[in-house]
Amino acid sequence: RETVHKLCSGQVIVDLATSVKELLENSLDAGATSVDIKMRDGGLTSITVTDNGHGIAPEDYETLCRKHWTSKITSFEDLDGVTTFGFRGEALSSLCAVATVTIATATRESAPMGMSLEYDTSGELVEKTAVARERGTTVVISGLFARWPVRLADLKKNARKEYTRLVGLVEQYSIISDGVRITLSNQTARGNPVVSVRTPPQSDRLARLLGVFGAHLRPHLVHFEHRAENVSLEGHVSRPEGGRGGSDKQYFFVNGRPCDLPKAKKLINELFRAYCPNRYPVFAIAVSVEGSVDVNLTPDKREVMIRCEEQVLLGLREALMKSVLEPDE
Ligand code: ADP
Ligand code: MG
Question: Which domain of life is it from (predicted)?
C-alpha cells in the first residue's frame, strides 16, 4: 500500500520548484492577500509558506492530505469551470510521501486560536495541537526527499539551478496575482536571509513587471495587444536593444495560469535575434484561448496543450512585428 502511494505520488512533486509552486497555488486558492515563502538552505532544510487566506475548516483536518481529496471541486460539472489553481487533491498527499508536513491553520471563526496538524507519510493525521494564530495557513515542509536518496542527491547537486527556477516561478505568480503580496526569501546557516522576490506595494501590473524585470527596463518595455479568432494576446516585451544577456524572465500565461510554451518562446527569440543578436527580450505574455486548452496534460499543469497553437504562433509573430520590431511610426 505504502509502495503504491509512493509510486503514484512521485509524479506531482518532482522537484523543489514544484513543491513550492503547489503550496503557493494553495495559498492563492485560499484567497490570501499575502503569501510569504521562506526557504532554509534553499529548501533542503525546510520550506515554510505562510498565508492569510481563509484557513482550513476543522472537518477537513483528517482528509486534507489524503490522495485525491480536494475541497475545490464538489461535482463533475465543476470541472468545466475550474477557477482555482488546484483541483486534483494531489499536492499535499504527494508532499507527505516525500517530506515531513506540518500545517498550522486558523479560520475567521477560530482565530485567534488555530490548530497545528502533523501528518504521516501516507497522509494520515497523527497529531493535533491547539496553537494561537491569526486567520490563515502555514505549511512547513522539512526534510524534503530525505527518504529518497537519489532525488535528494539530485537536488543537492542542482541546488542553485533549482532555486533559480523557483525564483522564476514565484515571479510569474507575482506578476499575475493582483492585490497579493508575495515574498520569497532564503536563509542559509551563514548570513542574513536573501530576499529573491518581493512584490511592490503598488498593485498595478507595470509596477509588478518592473519589480521582476528591473526598473531600468521601463523605457524599453512595449505593451501590445492582438486579437484573432479564438485567440487573444496581451503583454509586455522589451525592445531588442533593451534585452538581457540570457533568455530568462520570459513568461507566458495561458488563460491565467503560468505555463511553458516552448514553441512560442523559440519563435520570439528567433524573431528578435535578427534585430539584436546577443540580447534576449524579457516578456510577460498572456494568451487567452477559447475552450481549447487542456491543462491536464502534465501533472504539474505547466505544459498545456493548445489545440490552436498555430494561431497563437501566427498571432505572436504578427503582433510583435507590428508593435515592437517594425513599428510604423
Ligand atoms: P488541491 O489544491 O488540488 O485541492 P491539495 O493537495 O493542494 O489539493 O490541497 C488539498 C486541500 O487542502 C485543498 O483542497 C484545500 O482544501 C486545503 N488547503 C491546502 N492548502 C491550503 C491553504 N493554504 N489554505 C486553505 N486550505 C488549504
Ligand atoms: Mg493544491
Answer: Eukaryota
